[in-house]
Amino acid sequence: MPVNYIDLKEAKQQSGLRMTVVGGLPSPWSEAAKSILHIKKIPYSAIRLDPRDNDMANWSGSRSAPVLMFENESPRTGWVEILLLAERLSSEPSLLPKNPKERALALELCHEICGEMGLGWVRRLECVDSGLSANGLSDKNLSAKGGFPEPIAKYLGAKYGYQKQQGPVYKQRVISLLNMLTEHLQAQREAGHRFYFGSTLSALDIYSATFMALFKPLPQAQCPMFETIRPAFESCNDDIAAALDGILIEHRDFIYSEFLELPLSL
User: Within the chain, where are the H helices?
Assistant: First the structure.
């Protein structure tokens, strides 16, 4: 079913589950949260984020998204808080391994995708670096440079702690994390499994699939994102492109085709 979008006034009047989400582009944190609720068949209403709306920021406690609001409980702003609330609201299907050691490993790997300095975080900073480094280049060279357009790059850079001298570090961290995920999936494939853990879907599969949007978004028919921002998501320097192993995209396509909703509701 398409996502049920409502405005802020409606959201404040409703009870139950409401979530602010990024609109117009496949922000992986928002798309992962939507996918978790979809798989668990947990009903909710979505509000598109307006970071300039003070009323929305006061209500949700954040100028970022996603933020998950349940009844009168405190807002959930972190990826792990959102996942654990979803696990509490619906235990089936469970998206974390039952074995304690496997559960700990799963959460650790999820953090390496979703958390601070994880794959999404450093890819965002790497795109900021590319966008700001492109400032002043000719239009011909600018398209090849990639990264976020300068106004977006400056906004995100200030918000997420971009440091110009760390540009090579961001790139190498992206490559290392892509390689780590590739090695994990290849080991699973050699053991006869298509998922990150055994023969069942987990949160890690969802995060891996949704965060591939930062490297290779789904086609426009399935992912109707702002066309002006798509080139920034698709642009990769040669080293990152080489680290984006085909098994990661194959896994993404498998997860979306079998478990997630298409086209995306942005």
Answer: 8-13, 28-39, 54-60, 79-89, 100-114, 119-133, 139-145, 150-159, 167-190, 203-211, 230-234, 238-243, 246-258
Query: What is the rounded CA–CA span in Å between residue 172 and residue 178?
Result: 10
Q: How far apart are CA 1 and CA 6, in angstroms?
A: 15
**pTM, full prediction:** 0.94
Contact 67, 77 (CB under 8 A): yes
SS3 74: coil
Q: What are phi and psi of 81, to 5 degrees?
A: -65, -40
109 and 103 Cβ atoms separated by less than 8 Å: no
Q: Is the dihedral of CA 80, 162, 246, 228 positive or negative?
A: positive
Mutual angle of helices 246-258 and 203-211, in 10-degree steps: 120
Could you list the pLDDT tens digit for every one of the 266 residues in the chain? 679 999 999 999 999 999 999 999 999 999 999 999 999 999 999 999 999 999 999 999 999 999 999 999 999 999 999 999 999 999 999 999 988 998 999 999 999 999 999 999 999 999 999 999 865 443 433 344 578 999 999 999 999 999 999 999 999 999 999 999 999 999 999 999 999 998 999 999 999 999 999 999 999 999 999 988 999 999 999 999 999 999 999 999 999 999 999 999 99
